[in-house]
Specification:
The complex is a heterodimer of chains A (117) and B (113). Chain A is mainly β and 117 residues long. In chain A, 0% of the residues lie in helices and 53% in strands. The mean pLDDT of chain A is 90. In chain B, the strands form 2 sheets. In chain B, strands 2, 4, 5, 6, 9, 10 and 11 form a 7-stranded mixed sheet that branches. Chain B has a 4-stranded antiparallel sheet with strand order 1-3-8-7, with no helix packed on it. The chains are: A mainly beta (117), B mainly beta (113).
């Protein structure tokens, strides 16, 4: 069965620090998709990134970067030079690809990041 | 752009009452789903639909019913509300099932007394 573990329940940093949010997943499939979503204090859920299991290239988007390592089943998320606006709950999620598309996206329990000024 | 619209935003029910949470999307997405979010539990899938007339159970379906008569609408029904159903509910849709990004509604905060 699919499983996503975000071991860090809460992280608190001071502005401008770098912070890494960990995500470890379990799946029996060779084809799957990994996601990160952000939930700011306002409550909405915002898509950040999708990665498929065949693309192990790391990705950088501004201050955000993602490190995908199949060997350790991890898809970690790093925020460089954190800002107060980065304060949110971050969810990692896994979708297994089956014929016709997967219907079940499994989320981790989330990591609450607080960036203090 | 409306995207995914959920109503109501807040609701208080008494134990045993029934109600329907509404969800509509205007993006012509085939895939729609309902999640509940509880403290420390992340988001858990309740029910999902891959197209009009097709629904299936997720991780925590008990106590909830869904139907999908149109592509646009995917209502979630609580048949007899229980305090354990106190939660924040999110509706989501995507164009290509769950291997594509989900668009979420703004959520419904439900309290069952």
């Amino acid at each position: 069965a699919q499983k996503v573990t975000q071991a860090q329940t809460e992280i608190s940093v001071v502005e401008k620090e770098d912070v890494t949010l960990d995500c470890v997943y379990e799946t029996r499939d060779t084809t799957y998709y990994l996601f990160w979503y952000k939930q700011p204090p306002s409550g909405e859920l915002v898509f950040l990134i999708r990665r498929n299991s065949f693309d192990e290239q790391n990705e950088i988007s501004g201050r955000y970067s993602w490190n995908f390592q199949k060997s350790t089943s991890s898809f970690n998320f790093t925020i460089t030079a954190s800002q107060v606006v980065d304060s949110a709950v971050y969810f990692c999620a896994l979708s297994e690809a089956v014929e016709g598309g997967s219907e079940k996206l499994v989320f981790g329990k989330g990591t609450k990041l607080t960036v203090n000024p | 752009n409306a995207g995914v619209t959920q109503t109501p935003k807040f609701q208080v029910l008494k134990t045993g009452q029934s109600m329907t949470l509404q969800c509509a999307q205007d993006m012509n997405h085939e895939y729609m789903s309902w999640y509940r979010q509880d403290p420390g539990m992340g988001l858990r899938l309740i029910h999902y639909s891959v197209g009009a007339g097709i629904t299936d159970q997720g991780e925590v379906p008990n106590g909830y019913n869904v139907s999908r008569s149109t592509t646009e609408d995917f209502p979630l029904r609580l048949l007899s509300a229980a305090p354990s159903q106190t939660s924040v509910y999110f509706c989501a849709s995507s164009s290509g099932r769950t291997n594509e990004k989900l668009f979420f509604g703004s959520g419904t905060q439900l309290s069952v007394l």
